[in-house]
Amino acid sequence: MIKPDVLQRLIDFRKERDWEQFHTPKDLAISLSIEAAELLEWFQWRTNDEINAQLQTDKRIALEDELADVAVYLSYLCHDLGIDLNQAIANKVAKNAQKYPVEKVKGRADKYNEY
């Protein structure tokens, strides 16, 4: 996920501004949700063709900024809670492999309790 040197830059950036006091886990989770909603706005009311066309314009920068905002808050939250995001993802993939065996779900969008 995020490279250690980039994470350190984020941590230093926050520390220099004395923002740790505002970054409680609750507030980071709220901010993450808000930024994820802003990310959705980039896609709202657009067809796949319109989205693909916008990716070829300067509007792509706005999408990259929203993705970065989501990643920043997620990085702060994981850092502050002592969660190794790469390990958490690996654990979740293993759990999902159990819940969604290939032979039952390949090519299907059903939830695990629907097949």
Quick structural overview:
The chain is mostly helical and 115 residues long. The protein contains six helices and no strands. The mean pLDDT is 96.
Architecture overview:
There is one protein chain. The mean pLDDT is 96. This protein has a domain at 19-83: Orthogonal Bundle (Helix Hairpins), CATH 1.10.287. Helix 2 runs antiparallel to helix 4. It is built from six helices and no strands. It is an all-alpha fold and 115 residues long. It is globular.
SSE arrangement:
Elements: H1 4-16, H2 25-43, H3 48-54, H4 60-81, H5 85-99, H6 102-105
Tell me the quaternary state: single chain
The H-and-E topology, N to C, reads as HHHHHH
Strand content: under 5%
The rounded distance between the terminal residues' Cα atoms is: 32 Å
Q: Over all CA atoms, what is the radius of gyration?
A: 18 Å
CATH topology of the domain at 19-83: Helix Hairpins
> Quick one: how many beta strands?
0
State the CATH architecture of the domain at 19-83: Orthogonal Bundle
The percent range for helix content is 55-70%
Q: What is the SS-derived class?
A: mainly alpha
Mean pLDDT, all residues: 96
CATH superfamily of the domain at 19-83: MazG-like
Which CATH first-tier class of the domain at 19-83 would you pick? Mainly Alpha
**Uncertain spans, ≥5 residues at pLDDT below 50?**
none
Descriptive labels:
Helix Hairpins, globular, mainly alpha, single chain, 115 residues
